[in-house]
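Protein Record: Sequence and Backbone Structure Tokens
======================================================
Tokens: labelled as protein backbone structure tokens, with as many entries as the chain has residues.
Task: work out the structure tokens from the sequence, keeping to the layout shown below.
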Amino acid sequence: MLACTFHSHFFSTLMNNKLTALLFLSIHLFYAQTFYAQEKITLLFAGDLMQHQAQIDAARTDSGYNYEECFKYVRDEIQSADIAIANLEVTLGGKPYSGYPRFSAPDEYLHAIKEAGFDVLLTANNHCLDTGKEGLERTYAQLDAARIRHAGTYPDSTARHEQYPLCIRKNGFTIIILNYTYGTNGIEEQRPNVVNRIDKRTIQQDIRQAKAFRPDAIIACMHWGIEYKFLPEQETREMADWLLEQGVTHIIGGHPHVVQPIEVRNNPRHPDKNVVVYSLGNYLSNMSARGTDGGIMVKLELTKAQGITRLSHCSYSLVWTSRPAISKNKNFILYPANANPELLSPEEQQRMNTFINDTRELMHTHNKGAINEYSLQ
């Protein structure tokens, strides 16, 4: 009897100890997961949103303009990003609407861009003064009215001081967006308008102000380089090096109208890696020369744990623009590289395959670091 009592007490104690240990382990794991939990944010960057005369004509309807078809195959990808950013390479200068060389796009174009899912538009580019002072100011006002965040051009220095550097807080992250252009096609801004130009002294001041926000990332979006060149020239590479030395985390470039390589660099002075995208290429345009009829979307995934932000993933997807001249559709349409072939005519397939094959060869040859191509769902 005594032995039975002893064994009963022994096993009861053992079970209680196991339950206590399991409870302790569960509590420990809960707090460990809470303490070490990672926050995550995805940033998506797209290239030049242009509006040539053929695009304006194609979008015209009896009651205005309709661009809904343009983004239907990429909309889900844009909207899935926490922050989606693109270069608005037109003014919203009002009527008369016009294409190259002085872009003034219909307001409906902006509405379609917003509906597609873009959160931020960049306006410092060589076409931002195409419709002069009135066009710059109207573009600024239309972006504000549409509640789309923007950076690059301002009606006056007061507006720039209040809104720049552009600070975006989301998912527990603080992201700073900077935007500069090499020039404005020889057109000078009229006072008191401000266009962010690539000037080292100004950029240094802006970076100092950006650091005051204690950001998780400072991203410089640069309108630079030489048009139609598939590799960046030495001046652009040196500017990228300088920006990283000043404290910029990642660089996203555009202007050449063709895709240029991507670099993911290890930074011995910083826990994060640096991404340099020399050119995203075109996004939506009427350009048709080889290499200009498509572009890339670049996705950056940042994670943060214990207050340290890191680049956890960098990837890109290819997009190609079909034009009514070859598709016989009414409007221009963006297609991802993995689009259903049945959606395309034989000529469209041939044109898209040429762009895809050329771009993949370029990227496979010249990309540096851990970068993958991904397909849209």
